[in-house]
Amino acid sequence: MFVDAGAGSGKTTALIGRMLRLLLVDEVPIGAIAAVTFTERAAAELRERLRTALEREHAAGAEAQGLIDDALDGLDLAAIGTLHAFAQQLLLQHPIEAGIPPLVEVLEAVGSSVAFEARWVQIRSRLLEDPTIADALSVLFGTGTKIDQLRPVITALNNDWDLVESHVLANPTPPITVPDLTALVSLARRIASEADTCKDPEDKFVPYLRALGAWAETAGVADGLASALLTLQAGVELKFKYGKTSNWKDLKALKTDCGDWQDAVVLARQRILNTALRVLVQWCGREVLDAAHARQADGQLEFHDLLVLARNVLRADAGVRQSLHERYRHLLLDEFQDTDPIQVEIAIRIAGGAEAGEADCRDAYAHAPAGSLFVVGDPKQSIYRFRRADIAVYLDARAVIGEPLSLTTNFRSSDQILEWVNGVFGQVIQPVAGGQPDYAPLDAHRPAATVGAAVTVLGPEPHVLDGGGRLYADQLRAVEAEDVAAAITRALHEGWTVFDEALSEWRTIQHRDITVLIPARTSLPMLENALDAAGIEYRTEASSLVYSAPEVRSLMAAARAVADPTDALALVTALRSPLFGCGDDDLWSWRAQGQSFNILTRVDEDSGHPVGKAVAYLGSLHRRSRWLAPSEVLGQIVHDRRMLEVAAWGPRARDSWRRCGTSWIKPARGSTWSTVGCARTCCGQQHKVRKLPRPPNRCSRSPTWTPSGS
């Protein structure tokens, strides 16, 4: 069954209903059901709501008391979780067939980043040492490219390493050869000789032809790949302009010949570059594949490894397919619009069993028994194309599984909001064959709020200066932030109402009911200033907003100084931070005494100089860090510098405490990272940490999110 479920239409309720029917009507054991969600939070919610529904049925005296008891007993061990967790279960059930050890470790996102850093350092060294790619590297360096610019290539290949064999290595690239410039040199000499036909030797076009002739002489003696590439680059940079038409037989035709010649030079240069890039990409692809196979053999797997290995064993082994088909007789997939081809193939091959061995998994679906797949999704909410989620996959699956059942009643928003949403997105979302389905209007279930506007548009008129001039970007952000603060103040002052699900009634709006989405953290300081000025309490809640906080930047600077004693910039940054409170006068006087900014320098902590005390403390922590986990080093800094106590005097102590909390330290706990790796990763990979823990419900502040975090 395929269910198209619009926003707020009860997708989770539909999943719960399907599971209850399987458990209590069809008498399917809960261990034979696998429910796959997109996030761990959604999985926890689904499990808890299923437990509540079963307990409600039990309390109501349903006939199937024994089935309910069995389901409740097995609920904690049921396969309800993310696809990565489900794939891990499949692999652990068949480790030999999957080619992995019986015991595996799955690296978290930050752990994977640290492991990638280590791999990149090794790959970078091998790049410079491998003689088979020396020519390709010389070509690359000849264009001004730095070796670190190959890192994004490695990253992209690593993210999709399962496609490397078929898309990168399938067609080996021939070695780079020195191009034959004879034809280009002959043509350049012929064109340059036209300078002698000019009626006026002072014509402004003559020097360009002389330069072309000089290029031909240089190219004629070019020897070797590097020399040829430099020569071609010089030809690309030649200019052909100016000139007086009356001084030439046909100046326009001559300039056309020059342009055609230069196009040929560009093409010759591009052939060399393309070949060099292919050689390097294929070399990098082999390195990435070797690393993936090493992770498989060692049992040190990343999230993408789980999906690929599960897909591969299901594709190759009929016995595994049949075993999993018999164990998981019913698969329920949530948020299917964000499913990539690997996830679809895993589900279809399990549903189809031993017979589902066709090369195209869409053909394999014919072997799936009726009712074995229950899929819920909304094509309008597909936002993860960067993770290989493709709406075309969703549409193909819908076509294979059958005509979908549509849920269009929205239980979340009022009728006035839905009227506005339908009006806007009915025009914005237009159907595209194979890529975008038509917009399906949502039907309202909840009436309008008793107090307050359903939809308010801020800034319908452009903001301008008093004199009519345009605002700069920062000024505009500040004015728009004031508009947002004014709207929040108005809603709180007028007592707008919201529907309380727990109480099943309308109540007056509170700070916690208000969320502000911002397009990027660039506008966050202006928004904070506006909210502070309006006396509105708030908290920043998601994405990398937290890493612009001064206390976190100070902590990271201290961690970097401890991790790398040669990082003088990190040390000075830490010294000037509130952690140590050293002013520029302190730094100057310390230097004037002949001291250095190096934590390895032995300094007496009783010296009385603030810089000396700080350097002595960081040096002591550096020496002790060899026997401490990274989390312990960070925690020691927080404790010793009284960061939590200092934050208590600030206007938003809870936010500061959460930022100094364990959410970003947790990945390091119990791991084998070095302190250097932890500190550098926390500082250099800040954009990859998605969110902080949500504060308890008693916190009555308005949250601020970026769209990706929300």
UniProtKB/TrEMBL annotation:
<dbReference type="GO" id="GO:0005829">
    <property type="term" value="C:cytosol"/>
</dbReference>
<dbReference type="GO" id="GO:0004527">
    <property type="term" value="F:exonuclease activity"/>
</dbReference>
<dbReference type="GO" id="GO:0005524">
    <property type="term" value="F:ATP binding"/>
</dbReference>
<dbReference type="InterPro" id="IPR000212">
    <property type="entry name" value="DNA_helicase_UvrD/REP"/>
</dbReference>
<dbReference type="InterPro" id="IPR027417">
    <property type="entry name" value="P-loop_NTPase"/>
</dbReference>
<keyword id="KW-0269">Exonuclease</keyword>
<dbReference type="InterPro" id="IPR014016">
    <property type="entry name" value="UvrD-like_ATP-bd"/>
</dbReference>
<feature type="domain" description="UvrD-like helicase ATP-binding">
    <location>
        <begin position="1"/>
        <end position="414"/>
    </location>
</feature>
<keyword id="KW-0413">Isomerase</keyword>
<dbReference type="InterPro" id="IPR014017">
    <property type="entry name" value="DNA_helicase_UvrD-like_C"/>
</dbReference>
<dbReference type="GO" id="GO:0003677">
    <property type="term" value="F:DNA binding"/>
</dbReference>
<protein>
    <recommendedName>
        <fullName>DNA 3'-5' helicase</fullName>
        <ecNumber>5.6.2.4</ecNumber>
    </recommendedName>
</protein>
<keyword id="KW-0378">Hydrolase</keyword>
<feature type="domain" description="UvrD-like helicase C-terminal">
    <location>
        <begin position="430"/>
        <end position="710"/>
    </location>
</feature>
<feature type="binding site">
    <location>
        <begin position="5"/>
        <end position="12"/>
    </location>
    <ligand>
        <name>ATP</name>
    </ligand>
</feature>
<keyword id="KW-0347">Helicase</keyword>
<dbReference type="GO" id="GO:0043138">
    <property type="term" value="F:3'-5' DNA helicase activity"/>
</dbReference>
<keyword id="KW-0547">Nucleotide-binding</keyword>
<keyword id="KW-0067">ATP-binding</keyword>
<dbReference type="Pfam" id="PF00580">
    <property type="entry name" value="UvrD-helicase"/>
</dbReference>
<keyword id="KW-0540">Nuclease</keyword>
<dbReference type="GO" id="GO:0009338">
    <property type="term" value="C:exodeoxyribonuclease V complex"/>
</dbReference>
<dbReference type="GO" id="GO:0000725">
    <property type="term" value="P:recombinational repair"/>
</dbReference>
